[in-house]
Amino acid sequence: MSPRPPTLRENRRYILVRVEPAGTVIDQKELYYAISDAVTSLWGDAAAGIIMQAVVAAESGYVIIRCLRGTEKDLAIALSTVTGCRDLRLALRIVAASGTIESLRERIRAMPPHEGPVPETGDRVFDRKEVSILYCNGQKVDVIEKGFKNAHRLFLTKSDMENS
Amino acid sequence: MKITDAAVFPYPCGDTSVRRLALEAKTLGYDSLVAIDSAAGSSDGVEIISGIIVQDAPLRDVIARVKRAKDAGIVVSVSARDNGFNRAVIGLKGVHILRGINAADKTAFDHVTAKMAADNNVAVDIDLSVLISARGVARQRAIHRYRDILIFERRFEFPVTLSSYARSYLDLRAVREVTGLCSLVGMDISGVEKALDAVGRVTTPGAPSVRVIS
Fold first, then answer.
1. Cβ of A90 and B170 within 8 Å?
2. In b/e form, how buried is each residue of B124-133, taking b as 16+ CB within 10 angstroms?
């Protein structure tokens, strides 16, 4: 099948979202299913068929999602109902919308790196529990409880770590 | 206007410390948070208001807890139950928010309760976590109940608050996203702005209805 001429193509919009928590490894296909489920659950099959959501790219903590022009608002509402991807808890924070992927890639390049350095590593004690630092950026510190089971990820700040 | 999330559950109820919640809330566009069972304070320019939720308690215990919390600057919320209980709770001085109306029975909130809420300046809470994480019938039922409440709100003009019930910072939503979610229940932008500012209005005592001039 030959590609359609530009005048006969559907106009599309691209939404740039940041994936939180930082450092989450995204499987593009799994995320597509999570978004698809959220859109279908909220708006139904008919609207999902019009929105035509697709995960176009996932790079350095950011994801670019495609939709039909005019349906960005519906997709944005559905994206705010995404709470996980398989067994992974996550949140999608909308950063920008654009008509081209390239302009969103430029925005990613202009933004500070999402998966920042981890200047502090090692074991610490928080609330009388032994924890390991997973991620540290500015004031934000993500730690994980040490242990074989029930190891939860905790989201803290440097002040919390200093005061504990 | 102060943009407030009317209920978050910091560590140890959730997995995020109150300081981290404040830090993330600031980036999402909030000015203050009502932190349940947490101390009041301020962090990164975000005001943290202490709050309690009284639930599954007989009316006598509710009265005792409200009395204890009175004049302590705490936002007092009570979980809704049947209609009689809700009317009694709304009539109590010191109760600020009636919560969980979507989980209460169908007749729990009627036009009389709505009028009482408006007269006593008690807010009715909209739980956004149901709209975010529930699926299928549960979410449909919540949307229906909230639409019903907003019909009363337009008629009687009682305050409405918006809560994320965030136990993690991942459960927080940006103000723009909250506006989108509230459009599902028929709330426009001005309604959302009013609801986000409602905690301040229900906690500050209103002007007396009778004023002595001389």
1. yes
2. bbbbbbbbbe
In chain B, the residue whose alpha carbon lies closest to the alpha carbon of A91 is: B170
Pairing type for strands B97-99 and B123-127 reads parallel
Q: Thinking of the domain A10-110, which architecture would CATH place it in?
A: 2-Layer Sandwich (3.30)
Shortest distance, CA A24 to any CA of chain B (angstroms)? 13
pLDDT of residue A118: 62
Write the pLDDT tens digit of every residue in A50-61.
999 999 999 888
Q: B159 with B202: CB under 8 angstroms?
A: yes
Neighbours of B94 (CB within 10 A): 15
Angle between helices B175-183 and B189-196 (to 10 degrees): 120
For the record, the structure tokens of A18 come out as 């940041």
- Partner residue opposite A77 with nearest CB, options B11, B133, B180: B180
Across the interface, whether the CB atoms of B23 and A140 are under 8 A apart is answered yes
CA atoms within 13 A on the CB side of B171: 23
Cβ of B12 within 8 Å of Cβ of A77? The answer is: no
Per-residue model confidence (pLDDT) at position A135: 84
Contacts of A81 (CB under 8 A, 6+ apart): A38, A41, A42, B131, B132, B133, B181
**DSSP bridge pairs for B51:** B36, B75
Say how far apart CA B64 and CA B62 lie, in whole Å.
Answer: 5
A7–chain B nearest CA distance, Å:
32
Q: pLDDT at position A121, please?
A: 62
- Interatomic CA distance for residues A132 and A134, integer angstroms: 6
Q: How do the domains of chain A map onto residue ranges?
A: 10-110, 123-163
Three-state DSSP state, B42: strand
- The complex scores an ipTM of 0.90
Cβ of B132 within 8 Å of Cβ of A80? The answer is yes
pTM over 0.80: yes
Q: How far apart are CA B82 and CA B105, in angstroms?
A: 7
Q: What angle do CA A90, A95, A99 make, to 5 degrees?
A: 125
Residues of B in contact with A41 (CB under 8 A): 135-136, 139
Q: What is the CATH number of domain B4-203?
A: 3.20.20.140
> Which residue matches tokens 């770590």?
A161
